[in-house]
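Workshop exercise sheet. Pairs work together: one partner reads the sequence aloud, the other fills in the structure field after running the prediction. Swap roles for the next sheet.
Pair: D.N. / O.F.
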Amino acid sequence: MGDRLKGKVVCITGAGRGLGKALAQAFDAEGARLALAARTTPELDALVATLQDAIAIQTDVREPREVQALIDAAVGEFGTLDVMINNAGLAVYGPVGSYTPDEINRVIDTNVKGVIHGSQAAFKVMKENRTGFIINISSIAGKLHLPNESVYSASKWAVNGFTGTLWLEARKHGIKVAAVCPGGVNTPFWTTQEFLPFPDRIDPERDFMNPAEVARTVVELVATTREYVITDVVMQPLLF
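Structure field:
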């Protein structure tokens, strides 16, 4: 446990499980104060009970009013906002022609619009403070063209495009912006998918990265880049 981020206020969406939970634990270990969001609260409440200084706010990132309420709650509780991590996301896999309109909307509304809503709300606070860091959790699928991931890939390519332009607009206000693009991360996500892009190859324990390691990289991104910013981080499993 360290204190490199002691007192820093960090907001994380999708924090109830998987990478979001690992991010919360990693930032907590560095002394950060946390505003944690998820659509459902039981897992989030259980996580908050194990952390030093954290609050839970039920939030559907698809709804801009709920995202604004999340940022308002964070600032109301802690007085400011230093880091916004737009992590909430979901995926539906399958051939191009298999996606229903509802599936397409769920992926785009969560992965793209959720990131935009979170960035907009955080930007307002950080612009007034002339400082801050917005980190959007994207995916290697936003860098590659992968079979059976057309809609998910489209959402992550959109996140990367949005993040790059946000950085150009935010830097003049002293705000840092970065996209983090992990490859496969070993989270419960993979055990809940009805269709996987490579069902005969995937073994999360063997092939995917530990979420705690990915989270530590995000912490390092915040803790060590004081006079500069790494705007694009790509992480891939060593073996696959």
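Discussion prompt: Helices lie at 18-29, 42-48, 64-78, 101-129, 150-170, 204-207, 211-224. What would you look at next?
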